[in-house]
Amino acid sequence: MAPLHWRCHYFFLANPVDICYSGLVMEKRIHLYVSRKNVLTWLMALCMVGSAVARVIIYSGVEGVGVWSQIVLPVAATLLFVLISVICGQEMFYKTAIPVFMMAVYCGIWVCTHMDSVVTKTLFCICLVFFCVLYTEITCGRLRYAWLLFPLIAAPVAVVLYYNRAALATLDTTILLSLLPDLLILLGGLLLSFAVRIHSDGKYHPTWGDRSDGRRIRTLDPMAQVSPYIQVERNIRSNFFEESFEITNADRYIRQKRREGLSDFGITHVLLAAYVRCVAKYPQINRFISGQKVYSRGEDIQYCMVVKKDMRVDAPDTSIKVHLHPGDTAVDVYNKLNAAVESAKATQELNSGFDNLAMVISMIPGLFLKFVVWLLKFLDYFGLLPKFLLELSPFHGSLFFTSMGSLGIQPIYHHLYDFGNLPVFGAFGCKRRANEVLEDGTIVQRKYIDIKFVLDECTVDGYGYATFFKYFRRLLAHPEVLDHPPEVINKDID
What we know:
Layout: E1 3-6, E2 9-12, E3 32-33, H1 39-59, H2 67-92, H3 97-114, H4 118-139, H5 149-163, H6 165-170, H7 173-195, E4 197-198, E5 215-216, H8 222-230, E6 238-246, H9 248-259, H10 267-281, E7 287-290, E8 293-296, E9 301-308, E10 317-324, H11 330-346, H12 353-362, H13 366-381, H14 387-392, E11 399-403, E12 424-437, E13 443-456, H15 462-477
Parallel strand pairs: 9-11, 11-12
Antiparallel strand pairs: 1-2, 3-4, 5-8, 6-13, 7-8, 9-10, 12-13
Helix pairs in contact: 1-2, 1-7, 2-3, 3-4, 5-7, 10-11, 10-15
């Protein structure tokens, strides 16, 4: 049990077992990257682009050359390799394995076309598969020896030179010219092998299986991995949780903050700040499921809410998304949330980016609209939705929190959405007072707020949610700790 400090005020909170993974697993994988600042990266790009240009010039119109298999395919693979390395090489260098596999297909087609021996064709194809697999294993960090890239790429260079040794000996310009595109590709690969570096910042970097909005959790127990396939729809696997939280101290804390100049500070900010602090201690609650796989958002807490311009039935409303961090204090949450709300209200029609997108989609005829929605779900399933769509979507986030109290009613159980990956939907109602009898017979009046949660049970087990709510209750009882960043931010490390 460890104390949480607030200046000169000390108190103890319960310290249940922390449910997070050890960083030892992370050390088994290295993370390779190439930098745009490295001159070797640009020399590689020059060689690759030169290869594509040379291939088009040399092979265009040549009889017996397949346009799609011998020109379009290798040119597309070459340019894709350059784009990934230059644009995404800092974080997604491992994706260069895709154009490498494309080049292997091109080579396989050439071998099957120009060689007669079945044994030779088979051996070459096996070598190509081995090359691609080994390249993928190295670039994604499973093999901790980045230096293997050089001999791996040098081997095909040696094979090409040996296979064409007669032309080299006689300086046959026709054959040598036909080899130029492939040699430039291999030369670019050799240069890039010297430009490759290993991330040493100790942070997690994406690899195969991760999404742009989350990192796949790969160390779950078998039951946790199978459950999303059994309970496919999010509403089928929803748990309903209702609890009354005592907010006497929280209400006093709100009045204090308003006296300090935070005029709009309210219970929403306290609840949200407490949730953020819970993520700092129990990072597993910031997970989500997509494509039947469990992912972690890490330190990006995406809070979604509906903003209404005026409290009228016919007043427009819109959805906004606020990015929070586990280290945020209550004041940080207040500033970020209010900035997002004021930004939304500043627009004349209260139209967010999602509203504009929805308006465009609504103009599509019904039959085609169903196809568009299906396509969006398909892309989302495989983690292929563009980042800007994920940012606009209120269906993709960490939690949705809504105030029924501002409407003067009690909270409701709001369903989760089958589209997207939002795993938590919370609603809280009006503040209420209750008279309670203490052990000594005295009667005290306390304030409560009722909160109802709908939770995706496949993201976190029952014990995880139980420890979260216990800690959440203690934070509401001592909201002053939210004035300072957490001493420790636990990592949901896989």
